[in-house]
């Protein structure tokens, strides 16, 4: 594709604007010409930016709402990448500015832009260094959106890391009393994961070879072999779609290469998995999360719980499984096991918390466990006749759970924040009787908490039930455990509701500050409650987007299991591989 | 051949072949003379030595750029895939090739920025200016020669020529005890290292019968390949290690790094900038040069080729292990530092470790895999290119803050974001780039070095060591996060001290300088194709 054609790709400007508009506005806001004192102006500009980005993402995702169907807009019910943008960036390494959305990333993009609007609106009580706060907030939004739309591994990694520094400062400057500890802990954990990811990226890159793909596969991955490629030399690629095609070849180069007695596929899967599960997070690498969530200011907690945790699940679904299917199949027990362990551990830990926000944070660990379990139930094996249905159900459930959790957890953190802004404490033992003092707020809050609990009719239910059902066909014991976790979830949420909202009277300090919700707070809470109910009664609104792509990916991997996977399940002993440690001098 | 023909031929060789490829060095030498004249002749007293220096270096930069362009043929992607060849100058004492041209260009470019920086930061004052610039240019001349040395004697002279002015530079702040102490430590340590290196050179020369690097390689390959003479081989190994000690001193690699924190802390920030960037670039180039020249011959066959493979294996392990230790120790020792310059010294040591990992990867792939080897050298060249901006930026910020706060302690930077937010943003860019996070230049450099290591792993070259280096490099990146971020934490999170007396100083000139140095750190992190294409020219030397 020559550059002139490339600039007319229909999705180029919409996607680029969605990703980079926040960063551009942040750069403008950072200029010295914007006086620090004009706080109202800065707040409104930032909010307007997030709204514009949200509307634009909605325009892409939901064409019928806008009455026009353009080539850049998302076509529902279609599997595979849409709105693909591909421009050369660093030709020497084959790195491209390669963006696109499919049924997995499009809803997550909309979730991100939506929560950014709400979080930006929830930032009004921030009075310290307003200018710097909004600059960092907008940079963070660019990083998050970039990760969801990148299809080039290098670009993905860059965006992944771009999020770190703004988040560090947002927690470290505007956070609670232990903010410095929480901020550096968050940074260290995530950086450790990123470095492991970088090693995996490089390993995959140097083992990849585009020449192994057929012209059809190359076209499907939007990859081309550059004209400057030297004959006889492998053509490496960072293209995620091409890497997936390579990973699913019967003669996958990643499965063939050996490092320290394990195939490179397994190494890459493990390294990537560690990088992603730190973000999810799963037990035992979850310990940054309660600290970061508790210390972060309310809007940042909303973003952390609502979006950042989803990046991990997204990465596993988009990168780990398609590129390293062999390792995914043989390590499915690991992913599922981690999921169930976090589910149970998170629920028990939430039960034990005295701090309201910490309880909500542990509930995130527990809920994200369902995501892991749903992603991992690779039940399309010989025993089931390679039936992809149950696994597809699990992955769909996991996707739904991610989106539902994005709404319910952001809502829960916001509700905690509303209380904290008034009484300046979060001790679960020192609440009570809020329902009588703030009836509207309490009604909305209880709705959100019920959504988190997974009450039928609210959004939390659908994901959990699909995941639990799908797990039955993979492992009955895991399914039983995950079903029983619902009881624990009900216990900690109902107990919290009882201690905070019910009861005869408020027991804590600053009781006279318990004023009704302001209009701004209502405007943030209402959409969240509305969506929590809407997705609970009409889950097909989400499934219409998610299912075609997820089913297609699961179908592909199920076929792969049938055709190729057998050799992974029962590894052939012996036989030196092309590149072996023993070959080293 | 009679004396007359010999003289004529060497004259032709000097005038027609060598001197045209020696123009940047000549320009530097001429500038030194001119700067000295300015000091001595009353007629020229009014001339500012800094301006003279910058003019002369401008010429050198122009010539260096012309040489580089000539080699690259306009930086077309396919043109640099093939070797650009090399040429011996002055009867084989020096060699002119893509690496020489690139490093000379880098050094001259750095010098221009550096002299501007010293003019802005105010050290040296006008009185010391001529001395200072003479020393800086003299050391730079030595560094250019280090990059092109093709003979052990030339190597020794170049290293000394780069070192001796550096000792004097370290003691530039004459009134300060710490500065004099730094100079003395540096000189004593340097003299020791030079002695060891000279002894190693004499051992090598004694066994191999020559000091000319390619001829040494042939002899080395033969002796090692035949393997009969174990006595000679152990003497050669000893000599090689001693030579390594001298180079490691210039690289500030562990265990020859002890001078570095003391010198950086005692000397002015300006001197630290010079030592950490220019000295490092020349030392890395020299290390690559020696390792490549002694480890590989294009026309070696049979036992000689096998012997050279053993030499490379030895080199890779020495450099690789040293790299791992250097990197780890530099990063760990940086934790406890309270002085910013001392912290940057340990950061320099850690980065020397990353660079040496790249050297190890390049040598590991040398000969067997020309493409990978070229890529590894390109990675090193790129790393050095970005390192210019990162470290110059770091030291420029230290100097600007010193002028403003009269302190270089990290604690004195507390709450700086409230009074000078721009400077803190610049510091954040530089420090985060030194950690190696995208989208900054330091990330790309680290990415390229790690790429070279992974490339070596995937090709099966020195696999166990390369895997270990990859792990060590990754762990170190995480470890280094803490102390760089700590500086930012102090600048942003901590409240400013009540008793801060900020000296009023002009803002726009230092601001412009810091911006000029820091903007490339960001730009090269996003659009790095251009610098990469130039670095690829340097990479062609390796084939």
What does this structure look like?
The complex is a heterodimer of chains A (585) and B (543). Chain A has 585 residues and is mainly α. Chain A has a domain at 331-564. Chain A has helices at 3-6, 12-30, 39-61, 63-66, 105-121, 130-149, 153-162, 164-174, 179-207, 215-220, 240-247, 253-256, 264-279, 288-295, 298-323, 325-330, 332-352, 356-376, 389-423, 434-437, 439-453, 459-474, 476-500, 519-537, 540-569; strands spanning 82-90, 95-101, 258-259, 262-263. Chain A has a two-stranded antiparallel ribbon with strand order 1-2. Chain A has a two-stranded antiparallel ribbon with strand order 3-4. The longest helix of chain A has 35 residues, at 389-423. Chain A is globular. Chain A starts with a helix and ends in a 16-residue tail after the last helix. Residues 568-585 of chain A have low confidence and may be disordered. Chain B has 543 residues and is mainly α. Chain B has one domain (3-542). In chain B, 77% of the residues lie in helices and 1% in strands. Chain B has helices at residues 3-18, 23-40, 49-72, 98-121, 126-148, 152-170, 177-208, 213-226, 230-251, 259-266, 269-295, 302-334, 340-365, 370-405, 416-419, 421-435, 441-459, 463-492, 508-526, 529-539, and strands at residues 87-89, 94-96. Chain B has a two-stranded antiparallel sheet. The model of chain B is unreliable at 75-81 (pLDDT under 50). At the A-B interface, helix 7, helix 8 and helix 9 of A face helix 16, helix 17, helix 18 and helix 20 of B.
As laid out across the biggest beta sheet of chain B, the strand order is 1-2
How much of the residues of chain B is beta strand, in percent? Answer: under 5%
The fraction of residues assigned to DSSP E strands of chain A is: under 5%
- Tell me the series of helices and strands of chain A, N- to C-terminal: HHHHEEHHHHHHHHEEHHHHHHHHHHHHH
Order of helices and strands of chain B: HHHEEHHHHHHHHHHHHHHHHH
| Class computed from helices, strands and strand pairing of chain A | mainly alpha
Q: Tell me about the biggest sheet of chain B?
A: 2 strands, antiparallel
Shape of chain B: globular
| Integer-rounded radius of gyration of chain B | 23 Å
How many angstroms separate the termini of chain A?
43 Å
Computed Rg of chain A:
24 Å
Mean pLDDT of chain A: 88
How many domains comprise the coordinates of chain B?
A: 1
Task: Supply the number of helical segments of chain B.
Answer: 20
Task: Tally the beta strands of chain B.
Answer: 2
The structural class of chain B is: mainly alpha
Q: Mean pLDDT score of chain B, rounded? A: 89
